[in-house]
User: What shape does this take?
Amino acid sequence: MLSKEGLPEWLRPVVRVAETVQPVQLSRFLPPKNGAGRQSAVLVLFGEGERGPELLLMERASSLRSHAGQPSFPGGALDPEDGDPQGQGPLRAALREAWEETGLDPDGVQLFGALPRLYIPVSGFVVTPVLGWWREPSPVGVVDPAETARVFTVPVADLTNPDNRATTVHPSGHRGPAFLVESALVWGFTAGIIDRLLHYAGWELPWDRDKQVPLDWRA
Assistant: This one.
């Protein structure tokens, strides 16, 4: 299911990241060694828009039990029909979930890599970030308002713009990268993945890490 044939030249640094990055370079939260955690996958989908390279994101419905209202990549838990969690299961799950959540046509997506599995302690998910190229873009939008509030794309140029970058500070003391784009605050796991991809792909620009956005206990 993975192919690097015919990718645009600007994606080559991302391919290199997928081939070389180590789990500890992406997050300090790694899957439990005892195998615990719910296997899941997200689709990190790169497309080409009017302003150049862009990423597909969605905003989760405010009524959801976990990560309510947060911008995120399309994705979710593996189903049995997705197959082996250690094999192609995460690839199938990422495409299936993206189709279910955004109406994305999977046939227009070329999967070209996957990042190491990471862990989200608050929800117990073991997540495989699956990398895709939106070779043939299709219409996307909210499929189920009970799950998704909106679907949108963000130009990579906006994500690298230092004016749009900040550090979130949770009352617990946890700090993490954030992006203020498309009338949204992208933070948490999703922002962490974007931050590390920009960094290791060589796209990151210097930004003010002292610029803070406080979160509340519900976050």
Observations:
- The chain has a mean pLDDT of 94.
- Residues 52 and 100 are 26 Å apart (CA to CA).
- The helical segments are 12-20, 23-26, 89-102, 156-160, 188-200.
